[in-house]
Amino acid sequence: MLSAVPGPLVATEGEPFWVWALTITGLAVIFAIDLWAGRKPAEVTMRQAGRGVAIYVGLAVIFAAGVLLFGGQPKATAFIAGYVTEYSLSVDNLFVFLLIMTAFAVPKAFQHRVLLVGILIALIMRGGFILAGAAVIERFSWVFYLFGAFLVLTAIKVCFEKSDDEEEFRENALLRLVRRVVPVTEDYRGAKLTVREAGRRMITPMLMVMIAIGLTDLLFALDSIPAIFGLTKDPYIVFTANAFALLGLRQLYFLLGGLLSRLVYLQYGLGVILAFIGVKLVLEALHTNTLPFVNGGQPVPVPLIGIELSLGVIIGVLAITTVASLLRTRASRDRDLESV
Fold first, then answer.
1. Concatenated DSSP letters for 33-86?
2. What are the domain boundaries of the chain?
């Protein structure tokens, strides 16, 4: 018989409603302040982007301290591990965001607003995804085998797929359906999402690109959500780690810019992280589930991977990947200069 998965996967009895309400209200206030601050279209400078990243990382650190104070060390460690994992996996999204921005020819002055609203759409949809995933895990613990296998297969795909910087963004079926159902203007109308022309309501490319950003990020959640569920079963920690990672993603887009092309080993690092968490999930399930055809119907004596070790592996892999990437691109640049 398959049983629930306790142990090193940080579990919870559920946070009270007022904690959820206070958290969601706080996130809504942050989004509102950001929207108000960016009410006037303007290109984001590197200095502004760097300050924004520092602010949002600082907010995540403050939140982690609050979790440590009121929830204890296991939850705080799980939040940090989940946040670092989600943030690192989200960096790969930035390549696709760049393709979308280019495909829709978004003016630089409007890119900040597009990313903010697109990420807000993604966060709302991820919230539903997380709640559904938590409900499934609560009732069917064998889903961890599926999550683990999926993450390992995704890791293999990430490591061996060829990245093509010249790849073009192609609209998905939903975006094409929107174009067929609702008329779209040929060009932008400032920051407006809809306009009335010739007696009919039309949407602008501004709304289309926001929807594209939100839907694309949701697709990336198909591997990042199972990954963080491999670190903690607490829906509150999963949601808040996702929220803080998405909050800082927008500023990171403007800060990294051309640096993204220098992270040549990023996909391998992300692949290793996904594979590691996938194996961790399978080990947890084997240790705690009772399988009649394995070990005489008793839990399998397998080693467990604690959350502290998981956090160390995640940070270590990211550090090695980043340093190796920068050394590789620096060496290539030096060779190019010598050949001139």
1. HHHHHT-S--PPPHHHHHHHHHHHHHHHHHHHHHHHHHH-HHHHHHHHHHHHHH
2. 17-339
